[in-house]
Specification:
This protein is α+β, with helices and mostly antiparallel strands. It has 3 domains: 6-124, Sulfite Reductase Hemoprotein, domain 2; 157-284, Sulfite Reductase Hemoprotein, domain 1, CATH 3.30.413; 387-520, Sulfite Reductase Hemoprotein, domain 1 (2-Layer Sandwich), CATH 3.30.413.10. Helix content is 32%, strand content 19%. The protein starts with 5 loop residues before the first helix and ends in an 8-residue tail after the last helix.
Length: 528
Amino acid sequence: MASETKAQRVERIKSEKDGLDVLDDIARYAQSGEAIDPEDIDRFKWYGLYTQNKNLQGPQDETLYFMLRVKLDWGLLTCSQLIELGKISKELARDTAALTTRQDIQFHWIKVSDLPEIFERLAKVGLSTLEAAGDCPRNIVCCPVNGMDHDQIDNVRDIVEALNDLYRDNREFSNLPRKFKVGVSGCRKHCISHEVQDLAFTAVKRLDGEIVFSVSVGGGQASNRRIASHIGYVQRKNIVTVAKSVAEIYRDYGRRDNRSKARLGHLIDDWGVERFISKLESDSGVTFDLYDGAGFTPYPRRSHFGVLATTRSGYNAVGYAIPAGRIGGERLLLLGRILEFYGADGMTLTTTQNIVVHGIAQEVTVALLETLESAAGLCAYPSVFEARTLACTGLNFCKFAVSETKNLAIEVVEYLKNRFPDFSEPISISINGCPNACAHPHIVDLGFVGAIVKRDEEKFKGFDLIVGGHLEGEQSRFAVKTGVKVTGDEVAPLIESLIEEYESSQSRDFGIFLLEKYRYEPTISTAS
């Protein structure tokens, strides 16, 4: 009998037991201490759990450790939630905590025996890991200053809430061909990167003042490297109906025979955009308006940093950079207590692994800024390198990674910040441990993708360099391969040399400079 393919195995596992049904098994494994069925380990993803790499485990430690992802609605954390997450991290996750590009937070070193306690503690502060991973709708991303930004086009919190109600714990959508990523934006800066979401609704104000939502479908990175197709505009009242129909079409027609070709973008490529629109209009009963002409903010200008006046009179928000998204349990706990002391509401996470603290009374804003900088090492006006450097989980914890990322990213940021203290070009950098694109290397200026590097017949863990990624609506482009391979130690010096060359050139755009350089030198040697 022929062995199962990976896709056949996953589809069988999902058909035999829905991922939503594994919670009782988690409790049983926690209590009994018995070995976990590998097929249940796959289902654990529906509760935000992945087995972690054993890279940092001692040789005598046979414990099966997990990464645990907490799904945050609107990317929002109150002070009490911050404090509880900090305590969980310090007590049960070895002080680990990292921010993700879907406005979630994740821990490492999690033991199955601790999960019932963790789930109970999360529930007490209104948090959950339900469907933080798995073949289901992932966290719906939105602008971190939504509802408080003077310049926003629309407040979309109610839309996100309605979509969460539609998708969450819904068995109609708990067994999709692969993950399904949705974004909703009312932000004038377009900070959720709608161009690489499976489905996104982006508020647009027409010339007559009417607000409609641009619908884009099929975006993605890694194996589904595709800029989303803009398919028209819909009224606010039709968003949930359209979102439901898109998920149903994906569920029913997306490929289940090949995991690498199973995302929504693959289905749209197979069908063609016109057929997809026709099917969607037929199923939803919604006709898309083909009005065009809306422009989108360039990717480097999509951040929310510094002191931000808000629509709530007398209150500010403050955007901070968290390089590589590494925040840690101690800092979560500290943030929660400091924000609580100053009467702030809490904070929201961004899609670039940063944070926005909000609900800060104007009269205490300066004091809060000083306290967060001195006690937590946070600066409201980060360097360009601190502000726009992403990193995935990396080799220390991820089984797919080739190279370590988080420590390297932080080291690179410090190196460049000290070397170029006055550099103001909004450079974006991603350090990604494998080709799966978790840290979005294909949409930044400088993407480092985990790879094995040869030096005099010796092999080292390192990276392939890709350059020139950019998001700006239909002017978006993915990064191109350069042929350059570097070890971790060579990353910072290579970036340094590129910045020096850029500063001495006539170019006014770093991304274009990189594209022009490497298109003419596709086999350039590595840094030494």
